[in-house]
Amino acid sequence: MREKPAIIGIGRTKFGEHYELDPEDLIDEAGLMALDSAGIERKDLDACYISDYLLQVTNKIGLEEGFISQLLERNIPIERMRSFSSALLNACNAIEAGRYDVVLVGGMEKMTDRWSKIRDNLMLLEDHWAYYAGGTPETNHELLLREYMKSYGIRGESQEKLMMTLAQISVKNHHNAVKNEYAHFQREIDVKRVLAARAEEKRVLGLYDFAPISDGATALILASPKKANEYADSPVYVLATTLATDYISYASRPYRAGFIASKISMENALKIAGITLDDVKILEAYDQSTVFEMISLEDLGFIERGKSWMELHKNFEDFKGFYYLDGKEVYVNTDGGLKADGNPLGATGGAQIFEVVKQLRGEAGQRQIKPDGDLLFGCVQEIEGFGTKVYVHILGREKCGK
Amino acid sequence: MGSEPIERRVSYVGDRLKGSRCPFCGKEYFRVRKYCGNCGRISLGKMEDIDYFYEKGVLETCTVVKEPTNRFIRLGSYIYGIVSFHNGKVRVPGRLTDIILRNDEPINLEDFEGREVVPRFRRRYSVERSDIIPTISLAFTFADEYYPHQEYEIIRPSKEYEAPGIVGYGVYVSRFRIKEGGIERSVPFIDEDAITAAVESGKLSLIHSGVDHRLVGKIYAGSESNPYAVNPIASKVAQVLKLGEEEKVEGVQGVDAVDTEFACKAATSMFKDAMALVCYPKNPMKYVMVIGADNAQAAPRGEPGGELDFFVGFGGAAFIFGKEDVIAEAEGWYSCTSDTPDFWRRDLEPYPQHGGRFTGEPAYFKHIIKAGRKLMERMNLKPSDIDYFVCHQPNPAFPARAAAILGFKPEQYAPGLYTSKFGNTYSGSSPIGLAAILDQAEPHKRIMIVSYGSGAGSDAYLFVTTSQIKDKRSRQKFTVRYQAENRFLQYVDYATYRKFKEGL
Ligand SMILES: [Zn+2]
To answer: What phi and psi values does residue A150 have, to the nearest 5 degrees?
Structure first.
């Protein structure tokens, strides 16, 4: 078995609107923080993997690698991916293959500069026929919810409970973000507000059901196990990093009440990491909408298909900060998730990993969770497009699972 | 700037909803594929062409879009969802069109889901004024509302006639109306224009006639409201309706297509040309299609040319001419022309002007009466020998007066009068009247049509219906009367009418 790469440093900016900053300013800030926390210098880097979705469109930057080279004043290999998870996966592959020892993985996005056009641009991540037919970045989330409700016969009172549960997910994530100094929204909301937004907009899902449009950057330093021991006292190992894909056209997929790619990616990740679902006590789910958080818990195997709304509804009757699922505690989106922490696409995965690394290391401060038993493993799910690419990362304080 | 190659490829697939079917396992794909994912190599090159253009689907799941992306903003709120065809063998995204969602009414998505829908050919979204106008058929309407689903069945002709004539026809008028001063006028939905009306009426004429689309040798599209100054409507019609033999390698249709323009007689002028082509002694064409379609434009009231704003309508009529299975044989024709500029629109001007008082006696009446009288004279006919009379209908009063001057009685001309239902549909005006008569005429009835086009001229024709007119009637549910008296009509206010006419 190849030895697992380790995260030895991590950094991020605050998410939100960074009116004064260019994308390269953002990545500079996150990158320096990561280097600093790893206790290494720029010269120690062998390569960089960076990510952004839309800089070419939003900021007219076409060769991001050059900006990073210039910031680092290095001529090392640098490659640009779309998502942070993609950059991490490729960095892991390179380290596991023995090519590099120390790699910077960074992600950035500057979406607010293109406020008036960003929703059109986001449609680039979907089937173009959906765009031509009048789809918006929100419509598929609403269709997913409709498909889910129809597949599992959720109507009437059950439907009301489900809609209430989704509102509570949003409230929960906002609550979590209050303790997250980097979050886009560091403020509480209540259920009434979520419901009022839906009613006002006369839509199935409203403003508070969706993650915002944010600016921000994240970075981490990934090292081979050999180097990790050299630099870090408490490295966090990337025990598994998997990717599964699905059709670009959501309408064409045989199963439309969830994401099959999430299921496949998670199953593979657990196998590779050598752990079971019971070992995962913290999960960063890709809650681009409240529907995503609810359904991802099914896709990832935490809850049986069609039952998530019911299980979560029970949990929210007396919420204690974690979901109590199948006799065990699972903390989900302790940083506020995409909903409240923010969603600067190319940087988002880095923030999810940031949270799990901080929690595993016991450095999450006010947000630190204290589940029953040791907190050894955490899981991150990042989605590109509408369930088109799903990445799962299993992070652990130990080199391998049991 | 629009991206022409992308536009062309998207419209090639999307206007007609082209796909493929695997001959081995039956799996279907939206957009053309060379092989089947289930069957692999054996299916390579053996996939069958299919399209969903004449099919009906089911709106499986939907949601309401309140905040569209930028290019869809002018559509306001709309229903968007997943439409399945062939019992779920294929699913496509789709937008419901021809629905005005009112903000104060609650929307229950279950009222929409599970219902049958028909693909409609519409404008896709807003573009810059200098761009190519994008179209698509991923717009749908409910099959149980205004526009019914009708199968297109190709029927082998059974009889050849001596004289050429009308083999089939189709009329398309939109679902929306404005009602003012006792008359109703058709209003396009915001994603409609003269191009979409031309395609719709052409499609309906194929359905009615049962003519094999591959045998249409030429298509004329007459209009004065083509949204392009340069770029034909006819080429769109030819490609969407697959007129002529399809040459798949090059992606061209083996058909001649051309637009014609002469105000409101742009279509009727070509009837005789169409009939000449099907009678050409060497290598005649089997069928020729003539369409008159207009989204008649008018300046806002109070501005020069604004008088027209009280009468303009929207719609199109298509006629297929041939010599086989004719429903109305042409007996004769006469046309007259003079340089009378009673109505005009200069290049780059959005709205036409007209000559006020000058448009009646010296223009409209002079030409219509001359053409009508002369044709009767030539054919040695009296008004009483003619069962039905229809002429151009710019307003309710003019056609009745012209008919009376020519000696026709209300029972002869009333069946073809639709201007108080649709307004003046310009190139579609007298052709829609003719279609309304054909919708109800018994066999062996004589019909006279006299068009009028400003500029100016009139075309008069005499047709005599055949026994086959009754045989084909059952194939067209979407008759003129059905469209005029439909219970799903929606009435809009003046502001909405202006906005819809302006388009995306
Ligand atoms: Zn097959």
So the answer is: -75, -40
B160-502 has which CATH code?
A: 3.40.47.10
Strand order in the sheet with A47-51: A78-81, A47-51, A102-110, A215-223, A6-12, A236-245, A389-396, A377-384, A280-284, A328-332, A323-325
Q: How many residues does chain A have?
A: 402
Which chain B residues are Cβ-neighbours of A137 within 8 angstroms?
69
Q: Which two tokens mark B485?
A: 């008296």
Return the closest-CA partner of residue B225 out of B164, B266, B269: B266
- Find where tokens 């076409």 sit: A62
Question: Contacts by B431-434 with C-beta closer than 8 Å and gap 24+?
Answer: B431/B171, B431/B267, B431/B268, B431/B292, B431/B317, B431/B319, B432/B171, B432/B173, B432/B315, B432/B317, B432/B480, B433/B390, B433/B391, B433/B393, B434/B169, B434/B317, B434/B319, B434/B390, B434/B463
Domain boundaries, position A51: 6-116+214-231
Per DSSP, the three-state class of A146 is helix
Contact B92 A201 (CB under 8 A): no
| Interval A299-340: pLDDT, tens | 999 999 999 999 999 999 999 999 999 899 999 999 999 999
Which residues in chain B have Cβ-Cβ distances shorter than 8 Å to A251? 82, 91-93
Dist CA B225 CA B222 (whole Å): 9
pLDDT digits (tens, 9 = 90+) for B90-141: 999 999 999 999 887 888 999 999 999 999 999 999 999 999 999 999 999 9
What pLDDT does residue B358 have? 66
Sorted by sequence, the CB contacts under 8 Å of residue A386 that are 6+ apart come out as A125, A126, A140, A250
Helix/strand/coil for B486: coil
- Best probe of the A interface among B52, B62, B63, B141, by most A CBs < 10 A, is B63
Residue owning tokens 């991802």: A296
Catalytic annotation present for B22: no
Q: Rounded to the nearest whole angstrom, what is the distance from the C-alpha of residue B24 to the centroid of ligand 1?
A: 5
Amino acid (1-letter code) at residue B429: S
Residue-by-residue DSSP string for A25-67: HHHHHHHHHHHHHHT--GGG--EEEEE-SSHHHHS----HHHH
Q: List strand residue ranges (DSSP E) for A87-150, in order.
A: 102-110
CATH code at A78?
3.40.47.10
Asked whether residue A94 is domain-assigned, the answer is yes
Residues of chain B with pLDDT below 50 are: none
What is the total count of domains within chain A?
A: 1
Question: C-alpha angle with apex B212: B210 to B217, nearest 5 degrees?
Answer: 125
| pTM exceeding the 0.90 threshold for the entire prediction | yes
Residues in chain B: 504
Residue A13 lies in a domain: yes
Q: For B52, list phi and psi in degrees, rounded to 5.
A: -110, 15
Query: Does A110 fall in a domain?
Result: yes
CA atoms within 13 A on the CB side of A229: 6
CB of A100 closer than 8 Å to CB of A46: yes
ipTM field: 0.95
Residue among A139, A251, A252 minimizing CB distance to B65: A139
Tokens at residue A234, please? 């408490």
Q: For A200-239, what is each residue's pLDDT tens digit?
A: 988 899 999 999 999 999 999 999 999 998 998 889 999 9
**Domain chopping of chain B, boundaries:** 4-17+52-142, 160-502
DSSP H or E run through A340: helix A337-341
User: What is the residue type of A163?
Assistant: M
Examine residue A101 and state whether it is found in any structural domain, yes or no.
yes
Centre of ligand 1 to C-alpha B45, Å, is: 12
From edge to edge, which strands make up the β-sheet containing B48-51? Answer: B28-30, B18-21, B48-51
Sign of CA dihedral A148, A151, A152, A156: positive
Tokens linked to B84: 């399945």
